[in-house]
Amino acid sequence: MTTDWSLTEDGPPSTGSAAIVFPMVTDSGVPAALKLGWPHPEAEHEHLALRAWAGNGAVRLLRADPRRSVLLLERAHGGRNLGRLPVREACEVVARLYGRIHRPAVPQLARLSTMSGEWAERLAHLRNDRRVPRRQVEQAASLARAFATDDGTDGILLHTDLHYENVLAADREPWLVIDPKPLSGDPAYEVAPLLWNRWDEVVASPTPRHAILDRLYTVLEITGWDEDRVRDWVIVREMVNVLEALTVRDSGSRAGGTELDEWITSSVTVVKAMQR
User: Fold this and answer.
1) Element (H or E) spanning 222, and its range?
2) Rounded to whole angstroms, what are the CA distances from 54 to 7, 92, 204?
3) Helix or strand or coil: residue 32?
4) How confident is the model at residue 192 (pLDDT cuts 50, 70, 90)?
5) How much of the chain is helix, strand and coil, in % rounded to 5?
6) How many percent of the chain have pLDDT more than 90?
7) Where in the chain is the domain with CATH 3.90.1200.10?
8) Which residue from 115, 118, 270 is spatially nearest to 192, judged by alpha carbons?
9) Residues 6+ apart with CB under 8 A from 243
10) What is the pTM of this model?
């Protein structure tokens, strides 16, 4: 690949959960990053999102070979993300980036309304599961069912995983978005990852509920989005997280036992914080 694109390695690689990234220099001397991904559905259209953004709030896509899950990207500072900022300031950065990356969705993307309908059916099967509060399960299933037929659920290009580690410091701008898992959806769907990430700070707070809501209100103050709609999407997303964690556990996998327990507990805690 480095031969195909006339690249020269420029440092040690870094490895994430779904990709390995090599610092590179192009034949014209431009610092770049070569991302070799592990093929998975969420990243299938990453290149389309980056191409649509064209560097507006996100790293530039320099070249793509989606068949081989290879992207050549503008190089950002991989070791410097929003985790270095106080959490409220980091939420403000992300909230301002939403307005730059949210634009009409490209037609190839999966639709959030379709996924919502599937979630509603799957969540309904959790009603009698004593491991999770029945009231929260029924609420999430009802909301997902309503979103599945809501005209506002589709149409906007979403990142869907815009948390603190997916915004990097850069030379061209102070902060740029990386690693989209794009959908055609509703902007209000985006907020939940800001609530469940940096969870240790929530737990360390004297009032975890207030810590969660402070992040929520920070985003709402900047975006002006409908508060009830954002809260409803957070509830759906968090209960889907619970659903996925229980699915892994019920599969018989021994992986991540304690981590799954903590994931379920944190998800339920956020859902409780979203209640009026």
Assistant:
1) helix 208-223
2) 21, 22, 39
3) strand
4) very high
5) 50, 20, 30
6) 78
7) 80-274
8) 270
9) 119, 122, 123, 126
10) 0.94
CA distances (Å), origin 61, targets 9, 192, 248, 252: 18, 26, 34, 40
161 catalytically annotated: yes
The number of residues making up the chain comes to 276
Q: Which DSSP state fits 54? A: T
CATH topology of domain 7-78: Phosphorylase Kinase; domain 1 (3.30.200)
Helix (H, G, I), strand (E, B) or coil at 40: coil
Which CA distances in Å does 75 have to 34, 60, 72, 86, 170?
Answer: 9, 9, 9, 24, 8
Residue 4: what pLDDT?
75
| pLDDT at site 256 | 59
Report pLDDT digits (tens) over 81-139: 999 999 999 999 999 999 999 999 999 999 999 999 999 999 998 988 888 999 999 99
Overall CATH class of domain 80-274: alpha beta
Looking up tokens 């968090």 gives 238
Q: Out of 154, 161, 179, 232, which one is annotated catalytic?
A: 161
The H or E element spanning position 93 is: helix 87-101
d(CA 170, CA 79): 11
The pLDDT value recorded for residue 197 is 98
3-state secondary structure of 33: strand
pLDDT in tens, 208-235: 999 999 999 999 999 999 999 999 999 9
- CA-nearest of 114, 267, 101, 124 to 192 is 267
